[in-house]
Amino acid sequence: MGLWSCLYNDRSSKAQQPRKTIIILGDEGCGKSCQVSVFTKDDFAINRLPVPSTSNISYIEIDGKMIELILREPAGLDDVTRLNSLSGNKKDAVLLCYSIDNPCSFRNASYKWAPEINKRCPDVPIVLVGNKKDLQNDKYTICELGTLHEEPIGWQAGQKMAEKINAFSYMECSAKTREGIRELFETAARTAVLKKKCPTVVRK
């Protein structure tokens, strides 16, 4: 029973663990890649270049059980191609993201992304995610958006949106400060395990 046996047993046990696939969607530049990178690698790279598609594997313990999470982000492509990733591929939950400092991405989550997700995979639960929470009360961001007669998206607006699109839950997080990142993917894993629509649960 040497090192190889220990490694084999560890890999074998992981192979037997439940595998859940999470699709991550939302406007380009709303923080999807950063949230995944911080969760899987503890790496925050603000100038990350978009790629055609990324897939990361991570393990997370939920209620005493290890879950293998496959995190798929169809990034760097046009919206139609990204939405087409919902067809045919295995998926247990969708993280629908917007950026708290970008009201346009918030509106697109409701009027562009959510209707297509609900149409293409009506039985797959959605977690609505407000990224870049660190900018919610940032004075510069508030000032910049104010010149456009806009403001950062607040908690209540996100909660209302989640209820409107029948999301499983609503989360806010910041990849930059790490706030809410672990909780986000714990919620994603639980959502994928349950894999059913239900009334919105909100978490800060």
UniProtKB/TrEMBL annotation:
<dbReference type="Pfam" id="PF00071">
    <property type="entry name" value="Ras"/>
</dbReference>
<keyword id="KW-0547">Nucleotide-binding</keyword>
<protein>
    <submittedName>
        <fullName>Ras-like GTP-binding protein Rho1</fullName>
    </submittedName>
</protein>
<keyword id="KW-0342">GTP-binding</keyword>
<dbReference type="GO" id="GO:0007264">
    <property type="term" value="P:small GTPase-mediated signal transduction"/>
</dbReference>
<dbReference type="InterPro" id="IPR005225">
    <property type="entry name" value="Small_GTP-bd"/>
</dbReference>
<dbReference type="InterPro" id="IPR027417">
    <property type="entry name" value="P-loop_NTPase"/>
</dbReference>
<dbReference type="InterPro" id="IPR003578">
    <property type="entry name" value="Small_GTPase_Rho"/>
</dbReference>
<dbReference type="GO" id="GO:0005525">
    <property type="term" value="F:GTP binding"/>
</dbReference>
<dbReference type="GO" id="GO:0003924">
    <property type="term" value="F:GTPase activity"/>
</dbReference>
<dbReference type="InterPro" id="IPR001806">
    <property type="entry name" value="Small_GTPase"/>
</dbReference>
